[in-house]
Write a structure and sequence with these properties.
Length: about 850
């Protein structure tokens, strides 16, 4: 649990090793007595060594200097020095020491304190890396950087020992790289700058959002505002800017400042096996999945959004390869690692890391998955080939699909709640059945636990919940809009605010209008509210049905339902006039006014129906029975009544047929809608596949560019070198040769691929083929000298052609002309013979005289 600090002044941690005493002396000589800062000096000292560093620093500064022997309160304008054999930490507002568990040479006291400083002081941290050998401080400064602190590194060429500064510099995370005489000035400037406070949700912040989006194409408005503010404040501090208005003005004038802010907002801090126990738990989960669900024909697919410089992606790759090896499977692995930082992606593709960046890997893993090149480690080919890096915006670009694992650690913590919910929906959509989601230790599927099931609580490993519905609209891939299919119970209670009353709504909007009856229904026909004697117009609702369409006469149902639908679609009121019905043997004529209810928000759209009686019972009685009629008139009336009845029956039949056709059309419409949804789903899958192809194409293009560059370098090397060289494959066919080869053999570019034996050479030697086979079979070099037919001498060197996988794939033959050398040796031998003969003659004559 993070300890809280009561004091908010900045704390400067100074790390130094070999040659660091001179740097510390120079630093504190230039430091005034009052800076408003606190200093902690961490150095490498010999075990059992009595340190006088506290006394020495005391001679260089007017600030009070203390040795951290026990818990000591941190105060401004004081210097605290770590004693030998100890590590320092911050607890509450005090410095404490703990015993070093490991031997000194393996212990990293600077890293240890930097991490503690970052955890407790956060953006109030300043880390300074001075002269020293080794890599101590590099990992700790990553933690400082992530927490929003400032990192200052001594320029390596001014350091007595450049190991520590160079290692820190290789991370590309340093805010300032300065010579000693400027480091003190920068620290003083930071201390005197105070706090550049940035208010949230201000016009200035929105201006910065717009500048970022217009310059980089990325919208940061869904990031947590506190994160944005801290990064802006840090940028202002780095550039000695005192006001937000001045900072915005400079952003509009200098695109490099926007790039700097953009890179700072990406927070590209990662490492191999970060939270090692969590990755070991992930290995256990993957191992279980592979043993239960994967066959040799399957492939495991992984997506790592926000991969930064690739350490996490390669960590997952190593784990998967270990699982496949342990289970003796032959399945393929495919890992998609994406980010919006092109610089980080280029670094990740190179797959080369400083030894400080792989320091927490076990020797076994380093040996199995890396090759060492001086102070750097390069991932082996089998690891690099399964990871594809590509540019992708997780918010805007289509996701990958049919995934077995999504590893998204410490990315979502920078997003606001709304964006997190959208991303969790995307993850659920992307994963296969029972797919795994691996989050950071500070992250959780809050509010969306129904989409995922927690299987390892301590390590935040989730499993896709297949029973959960993911019918929500996908980001930028809207499906066909439709109303939710939620069926309301018969004892429906209106899901409205308590202050809203449907009766008050009717009284407010239609007071003073003569209305015989009013009904408010939802789109499904469910009756929510009635006013007046509704049974005059339709049959008894209280005993037969709670749905108006079930209670309505058949001949009116289609007409009224069509009008309701049209009213909701157009959002205008629609009137139906002179409708007739017979309820309780009463012939009624009435009008209906249909009005969408937009003032009240509910799950389903509401509509109000107003029934108005236009024919009274007295009028009907007058027409039917008040006046008599003669026989002729009666016959005509009867005939007209019969014709009317026939017309009514015909009309009723037509209506029923139309209703049947309408039901068929509704069924067809549902099938079409289902087809549209399937097409939309296919479209989303195609978009995801297209995104995948784009990423793969980007990776291939990068490799092609690299291959082209290497080919051009080789061509220039071959054209400029004076060495004659020929490359052969294991079948002794020609793969490549340098331009000067025509001095030995008559080769042309179109001869590549032809066997060596097809060509004659001008050397007095016939056993080349046997030599080549011996070199290939034994993987050893062979060197000898041969004379040509034109009396030139060559030194022949045959070496095996070694691939990246450390296998022999042919031979390389070099021909180095040594004619002059041979001529000199011959002249020397002749001189030697003459001299020997002369000496012999002189010696012989002497003996004869004797």
């Amino acid at each position: 649990m993070t300890n809280l600090i009561k004091k908010d002044f900045r704390l400067v941690a100074i790390g130094a090793s070999a040659g660091g005493l001179e740097a510390i002396e120079a630093l504190f000589k230039a430091m005034p007595k009052s800076t408003g800062l606190s200093f902690v000096v961490i150095t490498h000292l010999m075990r059992k060594h009595t340190s006088i560093l506290t006394e020495l620093i005391g001679k260089y500064t007017k600030m009070q200097v203390f040795t951290i022997n026990e818990a000591i309160e941190i105060e401004k304008d004081c210097v605290y020095v770590l004693p030998p054999d100890k590590n320092a930490e911050i607890k509450n507002s005090s410095l404490i020491t703990i015993e070093q568990i490991e031997p000194h040479r393996e212990n990293m006291p600077i890293d240890h304190f930097f991490k503690s400083l970052a955890e407790v002081r956060g953006d109030k941290s300043i880390a300074v890396v001075l002269s020293g050998s080794g890599v101590d401080g590099t990992i700790g400064m990553r933690a400082i950087k992530k927490a929003g602190g400032i990192v200052i590194v001594q320029t390596p060429d001014t350091a007595k020992f450049e190991g520590m500064p160079q290692s820190a510099l290789d991370t590309l995370l340093a805010d300032f790289v300065l010579p000693l005489d400027k480091i003190a000035k920068e620290i003083i400037a930071i201390g005197s700058a105070g706090e550049n406070s940035v208010s949230t949700n201000t016009i200035e912040i929105r201006k910065i959002y717009k500048l970022l989006e217009s310059h980089t194409g990325h919208d940061f408005s869904d990031y947590k505002i506190n994160t944005i503010n801290r990064r802006i404040e840090r940028q202002m501090l780095r550039n000695h800017i005192s006001s937000i208005d001045e900072y915005i003005r400079l952003l509009t004038e200098d695109s490099e400042l926007i790039d700097s802010l953009f890179e700072d907002l990406l927070i590209g801090v990662t490492s191999f096996f970060r939270d090692n126990m969590a990755f070991e738990a992930l290995k256990t989960a993957i191992n279980l999945k592979l043993s239960n669900h994967k066959s040799d024909e399957d492939a495991i697919r992984v997506w790592i959004p926000g991969c930064s410089t690739g350490e996490e992606a390669y960590t997952v790759a190593i784990i998967i390869l270990e699982c496949i090896t342990n289970l003796k499977l032959k399945l393929k692995a495919q890992i998609f690692a994406t980010d919006i930082d092109n610089k980080a992606l280029a670094f990740a593709r190179a797959a080369i890391y400083h030894k400080s960046e792989v320091s927490n890997l076990t020797p076994e893993r380093l040996n199995n998955f890396f090759t060492r090149e001086n102070n750097q480690y390069k991932l082996k080919k089998e690891v690099r080939e399964i990871v594809t890096f590509g540019f992708q915006n997780i918010i805007l670009d289509p996701p990958f699909t049919k995934l077995d694992l999504i590893c998204c650690r410490n990315l979502l913590i920078y997003f606001n709640t709304d964006l997190q919910k959208k991303i969790f929906r995307v993850f659920h959509y992307s994963l296969k059945s029972k797919g795994l989601l691996f989050l950071g230790l500070s992250e959780a599927v809050t509010g969306y636990s129904g989409l995922f099931r927690l299987i390892m609580k301590d390590w935040k490993i989730y499993e896709r919940n297949d029973s959960a519905s993911n019918s929500a609209i996908m980001l930028h891939y809207p499906a066909v809009k439709r109303y939710p299919e939620t069926k309301l119970p018969l004892n429906f209670e209106t899901p409205l605010d308590d202050k809203v009353d449907l009766g008050n709504f009717v009284a407010k909007h239609f007071l003073g209008t003569f209305i015989s009856a009013t009904i408010i229904i939802n789109i499904e026909g469910k009756i929510l509210y009635t006013q007046g004697n509704i049974n005059v117009f339709i049959k008894d609702l209280l005993t037969d049905s709670q749905n108006i369409f079930d209670a309505m006469p058949v001949r009116l149902k289609n007409k009224i339902s069509s009008a309701i639908k049209n009213s909701l679609e157009t959002q205008v009121e629609i009137g139906l006039s002179n409708l007739k019905t017979n309820v309780a043997n009463n012939n009624i004529s009435f009008n209906i006014l249909i009005l969408p209810v937009t003032q009240i928000e509910t799950d389903l759209p509401l509509v109000c129906l107003y029934f108005q009686n236009i024919v009274t019972k007295e009028q009907i009685d007058f027409v039917v029975g008040e006046h008599g009629a003669g026989p002729e008139i009666s016959k005509k009336i009867i005939a007209m009544q019969q014709e009317l009845e026939f017309t009514k029956e015909t009309l009723q039949t037509t209506i029923e047929e139309l209703q049947s056709n309408n039901e068929e059309l509704q069924s067809t419409n549902e099938e079409l809608q289902s087809t549209v949804e399937e097409i939309e789903t296919s479209k989303e899958e195609l978009l995801s596949l297209n995104e995948e192809l784009i990423i793969v194409n980007s990776e291939l293009q990068t490799r092609i560019d690299l291959s082209t560059s290497v080919t051009e370098d080789l061509n220039n090397l071959f054209n400029s070198t004076q060495i004659i060289a020929i490359f052969l494959d294991t079948n002794l066919c020609i793969k490549l040769f340098t331009p000067r080869v025509d001095e030995i053999m008559n080769l042309r570019p179109h001869d590549i691929g032809r066997p060596w034996r097809h060509f004659a050479n001008n050397l007095k030697y016939n056993d080349f083929a046997a030599n080549f086979k011996e070199v290939i079979s034994q993987s050893k070099e062979m060197t000898f000298e041969i004379e040509s037919f034109d009396h030139r001498w060559f030194q022949i060197r045959i070496i095996p052609y070694i691939t990246l996988l450390n296998t022999t794939d042919g031979v390389v033959i070099t021909f180095n002309e040594i004619t002059d050398h041979k001529f000199c040796l011959l002249k020397l031998q002749e001189s030697h013979d003459v001299l020997a003969s002369l000496l012999n003659t002189i010696f012989f004559n002497k003996e004869s005289n004797v």
